[in-house]
């Protein structure tokens, strides 16, 4: 906890006891000069003016926030008195007494200004229950939110105009892949308005049913992201599970899995189960699940994998197939390969044998058809390759094939290596590529045999298997440009 957050927490604890109150007079006067404060506060310059009035009156808060140092005793007492006033006002605010929302806006400005890394709503004592008038006002702020995503400046470049138009179309059509692609243009600079943040956090603390009602009609991803980013990632996942709004569900998952999330590496148990629940829920919609897999699993996100592995143990067969198809196969060792293996380990523990065999078989079919980029004219493997599905391929060799099947697969690979010199290749690169593809196909079967013999993890790392002795057959090593690789011969090659 930062110094400012600690000061705020101590002050809120003391403010829960009876004592002196101080109202932010400068702030109340600044807001009172405007007839439509909810509109004014969204204006950059006028909003700064209103916040500035509060900061000038309680300037010591900026010092605490900037330095993490405690305020003087007198200033701490002023903060306590201010928080005592705030707590009473939010508990007693009446709609009929503030039709223009002047005090309402002043209260939210003051709350945002005093938190200093803490959270006013979470720090309010349980015995303080917000009245329905105030809760309804917070609900209206959220439900009435909207967004306009436009280009920058008067003469934006053509590419930017096209990107904005594409994003807007994706947003209208609930095109989750297009939304994710467009969101990358703005996510680094995105921050929800303080009105949304405070309203969401207030309702989440005191009236989550009102929050769900407020977001039920969202049809813009920016609005949904505003709600998700107003909450901690685990809280956002809880909202995603409680709502039926697909925009909010997507925003909750994105919030938890974004590189900006503290959950991303690693995700703790508190976040793992809610994410699993959300994935299982979305998997019931085949089209949406397929899009989610393309967004979140094309390049596997480590934080997602244990939850995804648990979900795959219970979702339907079509969802499992979409998962297998979603992964981008790279042909080399990668972080995604390790991440996917982590999820498949969880899947292996939780799934029944028939379900495991289904996934392993689907992965094997895709792996065989891909064959290390054979259909890609630009793919020319110059060494033994790997795939993101390697853990599943070893699973296939162990749980879908018997000893005879594994031996036949290994023998078939050896036969193809022996026959390679009898085929015609237009260029030497084609010959080398085919050699390495065959050796790459050999790896999971050889590793499965090694696992059966000596145990170990199903994901092969840090070694290669060869069906011949490279020291005894130096000509083969030289002919196929294998000098640079680290090799290891195993019993599986015999």
Which short descriptors sum up this protein?
494 residues; mainly alpha; 63% helix; 0% strand; disordered C terminus
Task: Briefly summarize what is shown.
This protein is mainly α and 494 residues long. It is 63% helix and 0% strand.
Q: Any overview of this molecule?
A:
There is one protein chain. It contains 26 helices and no strands. The chain has 494 residues and is an all-alpha fold. It has a domain of 129 residues. The protein is elongated, with a radius of gyration of 30 Å. The C terminus is likely disordered.
Class from secondary-structure proportions: mainly alpha
**Quaternary organisation:** single chain
Overall 3D form: elongated
* Helical residues, percent: 55-70%
Total of DSSP H or I helical runs spanning 4+ residues: 26
Order of helices and strands: HHHHHHHHHHHHHHHHHHHHHHHHHH
Strand content bin: under 5%
Separation of the first and last Cα atoms: 60 Å
Uncertain regions: pLDDT < 50 for 5+ in a row?
A: 484-494
Count every beta strand, where a strand is a DSSP E run of 2 or more residues. Answer: 0
Largest sheet: none
Average of pLDDT: 90
Computed CA radius of gyration, to the nearest angstrom:
30 Å
